[in-house]
Please model this.
Amino acid sequence: MVREGTEPGGMQILRPRRKLVARSIVAALSFMLPLLIVLYWLAIPRDTWMFVAAVQLGLTVLGVVAVCGARKMCVTVTGTRLESRNLLGRLTTIDTADIASVLLVDVYQNGVVDTLPHLYLLDSAGDVLLRLRGQFWPQSGLENVIDTLGVAVVRPPDPLTLAELGRLRPQLVHRWTRRTARLGL
Model:
């Protein structure tokens, strides 16, 4: 029997958390439904409901595109290459020979005590080739990717805040996060 996420021939496929799409749909509906009801309630007496219907159609199309994109998101790892398909369908291909090391760090979330893993694939210069965040990718899947790659893994012993990570290795955090890391926030 083949384990979930593994394919014959040494291929590892990592998919986002299963409940991510369902929770996103519920969140979008809980925001948009009351807003659209109020807009229809205000627009129907003035006979401008067609504008609200056009906005609703546009939002529905965007939602369907986002759900389809989320269903196609994946990271595929073989012995020679790693392919990452993002939400918008962009495919990034990385040769496994270019991956010099892997950094798996637990990062505290803003305002809570919980941590989520962040996986960084680094080249020989220390630049980030790919970043996978624990909000989207399950811990077991990240561990399977590490096992399939078979490169050196760095695991800091203690969880870090985003500001600490930005001070220690600024290339790992996004541009807009570096400013808060410099300020120590």
Summary: Helices lie at 19-43, 49-72, 139-149, 162-168, 175-183. The first strand starts at residue 6 and ends at 7.
